[in-house]
Amino acid sequence: MKHKFLKKASETTTPTPSVAGASQSGLPPDLLREASSRLGWAALVYSATFFLAYFGTNLLFGGDPGTAVPEETLFEGARAVQSAVAIASIALGLAVFLLSRFGNLRPETLLDFGLFFLVVGSFGISMSEYWGVFPEWNGVFMYEFAGVPWEAIWILIFPFLAPNTPGKMAMGAYAAASTGMLVVLMSRSAGFTSPEMPLLYFAGYFLFTTYICAAIAIFICHTVYRFGKRLGKAMEIGSYQLLRPLGEGGMGEVWLARHRMLARPAAVKLIRAEALGDDETTRQNVLLRFEREARATAALDSFHTITLYDFGVSDEGAFYYVMELLKGLNLDELIKKFGPVPAARAVHFLHQVCHSLDEAHGRGLIHRDIKPANIYTCRLGPEHDFVKVLDFGLVKTTEGTETGTGELTAEGIATGTPAFMAPEIALGKGYIDARVDIYGLGCVGYWLLTGQRVFEGDTPLATVVAHVQEDPVPPSERSELEIPESVDAVILKCLAKDPADRPQTAAELDGLLTRCIDTHWTREQAAEWWHLHLSEVESEDLGLYALSEESQALEIMAVQHPLR
Q: What is the DSSP letter of 374?
């Protein structure tokens, strides 16, 4: 029995998240990840710029490292200290870059460390500018210090690169702004700056440069933080936090999500209110369809049917439902990427789909959109090639029109995906039954064995016409792989034009598949395939609810009396 939590969003209270993995900074996780990545690149640019600015002259032209300090008696000692700090600053920038790439730190931790880098980086810049300045005081100040110091620019751009909470940024920005005055005091104390040089000059200079820039940086941080929190709020659906999109289709989009209290990953399918158009009737029909899909899926217990955790309507009017997250790829992507599968593996897939459909049909539910993009092969625990059937979005009941499960399309409307549409649906007949799913599953089997669709017309309508009028070529004649005659026969029987000539139930089809082939796709064979290809699949996020090109363009096709 699958465990399900079915509560309307309006009936569910939202507790404050306090588990590991929740963002303690208040910023959404994707913004934190991007900021931590930017921090790494900023650190690398910092090191490269510091190296070129300080040591570039010496390397390119044979001169001394760049500085404004004149060559006085204390010059050599001041230069040595400056160079040591410059090397340490460059090394720190490289360390931050490497830490951002290979340190395996949480983004919040890395951004907090970034504030330390802000302060120490400012200190390094200040050392190159003010250490040993004015070894002799001649009363002239503004000639040397008439512009904005470099550490002020560094402070000003930092909240764009690595935003943090306003409080932390305030501490970091003012500490960084104080490094210039600190260096002047240290230089004066060490005897590298003339004791006659009045500190009031520098105090005024830093007050109207670095400290003003620090205040601006805090304001920028506050603005970024405020909009980040708004974005984070907008990226919450019920008790789930949306992390990143996984796929998009004609009727909705799917997001990788995480339960805020349980830290459980999930997939959230939703349709936003603005995507429904201005017509109120259309909007209500689409929302009704999504609610029906959620209720129909939740009512099924087969472990080969996608598990539904939750569904509801968000504050913004987006309908959503939360599904288990599958690691694998759909059969559309499987064949496109790896080519046709052996007959034993195809039969293995079809067996599991039959298990899901047998229960659905027994409950009076017809899927009506069986196609490769709606069937996933997964790695589930120790099992490989474990099939899940999803997207009961066109489900139709054969037991009346109960609330939430009634028919949404009128007689004469063909609804489904053209390449996998049964002839009776294409003809717009008023009554259809479970045998339309048998036909669709025959099309799926054909795709698995040949890597080609049963019929491929120049237009969707031409494809629909072919399903009604043309006889399919046996799969064995369109594949280089060996396909037993018994498998050919079962697939062609599923593709019969007359529903009476097909297997009448999913259980009957499952029996035919069991008897039609002598060899079986073993657990060892499945594990070996996944061992060879899993890293490639996971690295590209193939199949994580990504919808195929056909699904994006033709997920729902409605044709008024297409063949009449």
A: G
Pairing of strands 236-237, 328-330: unpaired
Q: Name 447's Cβ contacts closer than 8 Å, sequence gap at least 6.
A: 331, 332, 335, 372, 453
Structure tokens at 181: 């005055």
Tokens of 526: 């499945």
Least Cα distance to 163 among 57, 337, 27 occurs for 27
Phi/psi at 96 (5° precision): -65, -40
Instruction: Identify the H or E element spanning 176.
Output: helix 166-177
Integer Cα distance of 201 and 142 in angstroms: 9
The H or E element containing residue 323 is strand 319-323
Mean pLDDT of the chain: 78
Q: What value does the mean pLDDT take over residues 434-456? A: 94
Closest CA to 242 of 252, 228, 231, 250: 231
* CA nearest neighbour of 374 among 494, 550, 558, 499: 550
Taking residue 72's Cβ as centre, other Cβ atoms within 10 Å add up to 14
Over residues 281-333, the pLDDT tens digits come to 777 777 777 777 777 778 888 999 988 888 877 766 677 888 888 888 899 99
Q: Is 369 a catalytic residue?
A: yes
Which residues, listed in sequence order, are joined to residue 378 by a DSSP beta bridge?
A: 328, 386
Here the tokens at position 489 are: 């026969």
For the record, the structure tokens of 62 come out as 């044979």
Q: What is the DSSP letter of 284?
A: H
- Residue 553: the pLDDT is 35
Q: How is 78-89 classified by DSSP, letter by letter?
A: HHHHHHHHHHHH
Bridge partners (DSSP) of residue 270 are 253, 320
Helix (H) or strand (E) holding 253: strand 253-259
Q: What are the residues facing 386 on neighbouring strands?
A: 378
Q: What is the C-alpha end-to-end distance of the chain, expressed in Å?
A: 45
The catalytically annotated residue of 332, 369, 385, 391 is 369
